[in-house]
Design a protein that fits this description.
Number of strands: 0
Number of helices: 12
Shape: globular
Order of helices and strands: HHHHHHHHHHHH
Strand content: under 5%
Distance between the termini: 65 Å
Helix content: over 70%
Length: about 210
């Protein structure tokens, strides 16, 4: 049960995240200052830095929540599922829960707009790739633990996660430049691309 003080802190943090994402997506990440974010919520710069180390941390705050949810979902998958299937089901079956996680902080539409801002902002894209690499390492260790193998001597966990992460990156890129900018569209694209992993890696592409 949240105390009144905890609830006020959470609301202030969420207000700062929402203000940051609104400013980043409307006027640009590089053009937005910490002072502007703080001013939008009517708090001081000092208050902003109580919650975030800087703009980048605020930019990825919601994404970090969804990544934590995904890692937990992978841990919870049935033991009999093959590793790639566990990753696939964790992302697809957890879609609604991820939506709820996002909506608890910001509108989904704003979250999706932020995706495009990340893709089009070199500093944010670099940070996104760096953070994704760290998340992939965490997931590889989760897979190794659930399969009973040593992640440092058995390459399969990292290879599996590398393939999965590559599919997610291709999906994000295609979706962010497409015409249908809905959450349903990225889910459908994710499912479609994951279904093509086996044929793409092991099949013969030639038709003649």
């Amino acid at each position: 049960m949240e105390t009144l003080r905890e609830r006020k802190k959470r609301r202030t943090r969420e207000a700062l995240v929402r203000a940051a994402l609104e400013l980043f997506t409307t006027q640009g990440y590089e053009q937005t200052t910490v002072d502007e974010i703080a001013e939008a919520v009517d708090v001081s710069q000092r208050t902003f830095f109580r919650y975030f180390a800087g703009k980048e941390e605020a930019a990825f705050a919601v994404q970090e929540m969804t990544e934590e949810h995904f890692v937990a979902a992978v841990r919870a998958r049935p033991a009999q599922e093959a590793p790639m299937e566990a990753l696939r089901q964790a992302v697809l079956e957890g879609w609604e829960a991820i939506r709820e996680t996002v909506e608890s902080v910001v509108p989904v539409e704003l979250y999706l707009r932020m995706y495009r801002t990340i893709e089009s902002t070199p500093a944010l894209l670099a940070a996104h790739l760096r953070r994704s690499a760290a998340t992939e390492e965490t997931i590889a260790r989760v897979l190794a633990e659930r399969e009973g193998v040593d992640v440092d001597t058995d390459p399969r966990p990292r290879l599996t996660v590398a393939v999965f992460g590559g599919v997610i990156r291709v999906t994000e890129r295609q979706w962010s430049t497409g015409a249908d900018f809905s959450l349903e569209a990225i889910r459908a694209l994710t499912a479609s691309y994951l279904d093509q992993v086996g044929p793409a890696l092991m099949g013969n592409w030639r038709t003649t």
